[in-house]
Amino acid sequence: MKVKYYRHLSEKAWEVMLSALAVAIDRAGSKSNLARKIGIEKNLPTVWSQRIRVVTFEQAIAIEFAYNVSKKSLRPDIDWDYVDLPLEKLPQKMLTALGEFPQRVVET
């Protein structure tokens, strides 16, 4: 079975995203820990790593909050200065998984 890859990102953007994702997975301890912490399906980090799908807008925000990995690195194709979503507006499942909202300084 052939897998249809998500091609709207440039090769450079994929490299940046996968590098940031690797940092997040390392900080989480495993792909399943990352998925659990941000309230997503446990197979999604593997799907991202295989370039089948990209990290969504909301997922990038949740990963930034949970693991201090820049959302700009997770989705370099998004103009984050123009578009952003307050943490409180994330889907309820993600908010429940994330818990409290301490202030964070994000590395860029």
Briefly, what is this?
The chain has 108 residues and is mostly helical. It has 6 helices and no strands. Helices cover 50% and strands 0% of the residues.
Structural account:
This protein has 6 helices and no strands. The protein is an all-alpha fold. The protein is 50% helix and 0% strand. It is globular, with a radius of gyration of 13 Å. The longest helix is centred in the first third of the chain and has 18 residues.
Features:
single chain; 108 residues; mainly alpha; 434 Repressor (Amino-terminal Domain); 6 helices; 50% helix; globular
Describe the secondary structure blueprint for this structure.
Layout: H1 11-28, H2 31-38, H3 44-49, H4 57-67, H5 71-74, H6 92-98
Total domain units: 1
Kindly report the average pLDDT value.
Answer: 81
Order of helices and strands: HHHHHH
Shape: globular
**% residues in beta strands:** under 5%
Structural class computed from helices and strand pairing = mainly alpha
According to CATH, what is the class? Mainly Alpha
Would you count the extended β strands for me?
A: 0
Helical content stands at 40-55%
At the fourth level of CATH, the homologous superfamily is: lambda repressor-like DNA-binding domains
Question: What is the terminal-to-terminal distance?
Answer: 38 Å
Level-2 CATH architecture: Orthogonal Bundle
Which residues sit in consecutive blocks of at least 5 with pLDDT less than 50? Answer: 1-5
- Rg of Cα set: 13 Å
Largest sheet: none
Contiguous helical run count: 6
CATH topology assignment: 434 Repressor (Amino-terminal Domain)
